[in-house]
Amino acid sequence: GSSLFAVLARGVPVVLAAAGLFVFLVTVFVPLLEGYTARDWRPTDAFVEMVYLDLGDKPPMVAATYRYRLNDRDYIGGRVGLTNEFQPFFADWHRDRYRLLNEAMESGESITVYVNPIDHTESIVDPSVPWGIIGAFAGVSLFFILVPVGFVYHFINKPSRKSLSGAAHLTGEEAASKPQSKRAKPTPEPAPERATPPRGGVE
Q: If you write DSSP's letter for every residue of 86-103 in order, what string do you get?
């Protein structure tokens, strides 16, 4: 009963916090790190070979294939944005990228992609950090991290009923065993001295 509840009260929030931390790392920390790194990538001309907007049973998602050439060697890329794989609910971003890539493919004009100078097989069309998307993921993931952690902290530091009743019982025993102070009796004032008559008769 109570032991099972205690296990669930501690286990479930920990699982939620771990899931929130995973989402934060994948959808916030990694894209920010990649966006910071991609600032130094080499801008290169590329030609779009295929682009489509996957409508399916979910919100639209853009996908593309483009070809670029470096050091007399051809490469094929397909990455569009930093968080392209984790933003299926931001339809406007996908529609805008699809429109730009489709126009370039139909006109035959080149687009600019950014290529990793160390690994030329790694490229991206839009290396800019989508702050709106990352901010939304950060808010959701931090909620799932902080709320369970706060719940666990409150549960661990909350005194049990047994300890409260024991403390109240101990307080009552201490009060009963403590000697009650007696009221001090007032010190009687000395009576005024009477004048002693002189011995003998009156002169």
A: G-TT-HHHHHHHHHHHHH
